[in-house]
Amino acid sequence: MACGFRRSIACQLSRVLALPPESLIKSISAVPVSKKEEVADFQLSVDSLLEDNNHKSQLDTQDHARRLAEKLKCDTVVTAISAGPRTLNFKINRELLTKAVLQQVTEDGCKYGLKSELFSDLPQKRIVVEFSSPNIAKKFHVGHLRSTIIGNFIANLKEALGHQVTRINYIGDWGMQFGLLGTGFQLFGYEEKLQTNPLQHLFDVYVQVNKEATDDKNVTKLAHEFFHRLEMGDTQALSLWQRFRDLSIEEYTQIYKRLGIYFDEYSGESFYREKSQDVLKLLDSKGLLQKTAKGNVVVDLSGTGDLSSVCTVMRSDGTSLYATRDLAAAIHRMDKYNFDTMIYVADKGQRRHFQQVFQLLEMMGYDWAERCQHVPFGIVKGMKTRRGDVTFLEDVLNEVQSRMLQNMASIKTTKQLENPQETAERVGLAAVIIQDFRGALLSDYQFSWDRVFQSRGDTGVFLQYTHARLCSLEETFGCGYLNDLNVACLQEPQSVSILQHLLRFDEVLYMSSQDLQPKHIVSYLLTLSHLAAVAHKTLQVKASPPDVAGARLHLFKAVRSVLANGMKLLGITPVCRM
């Protein structure tokens, strides 16, 4: 595999450069495949070897590369060494490359790419990932989709790398909005509607009470009183709130099931309503609390004492706020999980909030605040159904399924399926996830149903189609034992390009593990699918001699295996028929 070849190259370089091989391994990278020309298998950036890069001209670097290339010798592993612009290029023995890559994919299975030396010095950590976090008593808003799928990807990747991951869904189940909702239900709620379509009814009530509160200050006063009763533990208010919470989680569980996502812990802000009082006491004991003219309690974050930057931690009526409850949650999680890293997946609009929470934790004396990390993401624009503006995730999932069923029905090559609805939903979800993950997470993007469901091009539908097609190939022709593989039958340019690309999988996983961006894996899988599509046309299995057919089947099986591995990391369930 790549790491074995990297080590072989690093060992040869270490003898010439008098450096330990370990210090060179991460500087040696597999070369991306090119449509225009045959490329080397690995390259070393000469810049990484030069200490004072800023004062080295391109000619100096190229001269250094040329002199290094002259000192290195080919062997049974490396068959060609050349100097490129600022690089040293290495070509691996073709038959050795073929045998090693296919054998590694087969032996490692779902761990292919994860056993690489790139991860050898990776300490195993306890990691908490907080994601999704919908607000109860409202239908699951589409705005929470990105947090849900991004958080799931990060948790999947960290888990695959051997870390101990705890997935937390921190539900928005406390706060002034429940004062409004409780008051709204008392004014406009109907028990029958709550039983038949609970979250839709609560949503309608919330919209109505907000409108009333705008025009009638008495409604706002009633809402404040209701929330105050909640905070004080009033049994009647808590009983109504508990019903709203139970009904919400019941519906959310069905949504997560459709998405193929699970959590280790469902917690909520309500759990920390009492613990937030301990936070206020600690802040007070450190002399950090100040009262404003309006009676709110704040902490000065300016560092200059001029209150130019403050965080409000308690309202004038004594009720807690989101920030106070987040502080209590972070402290409780450290006590419970003793985490090495805690990742919050929330949109970029929350950036300031998390900066304040992390700063407050430091001011409270918790040096582990530096282990907390916010992964921000941009906004999805234009996600509409045929009926117009979409608000709820359930509508998106239903639209995904119906459009995909329609598309599949219109394609002549669609196979007879045992459960077409399930297949359509899995393919549709892949389409939505790939469109979301193609760019940088921080970027806003324009959602397009037409682009999402294209069966050709860089889409999730194309990934699923490629996987299903390769499954069909294996099903039709079977696949012999690797020991019978004749590597000499896989020396065509199309085969070599696929093998070179398979070499890079560990590097792509490494990049995503460093910046938590799924785009590296998405780009890799799309390229792999395009390479497989070309090879499928040119490297015929049917009517080929047995050793040629067998070798090609092994190659296609390796592609399917790596494709499935990558898709699962992204949160996509591969389909075998469509």
From TrEMBL:
Predominant localisation class: mitochondrion
Listed GO CC annotations: mitochondrial membrane
Subcellular location: Mitochondrion membrane
Top-level lineage group: Eukaryota
Molecular function GO terms recorded: arginine-tRNA ligase activity; ATP binding
Entry's family note: Belongs to the class-I aminoacyl-tRNA synthetase family.
Function: Catalyzes the attachment of arginine to tRNA(Arg) in a two-step reaction: arginine is first activated by ATP to form Arg-AMP and then transferred to the acceptor end of tRNA(Arg).
Protein name: Probable arginine--tRNA ligase, mitochondrial
Gene: Rars2
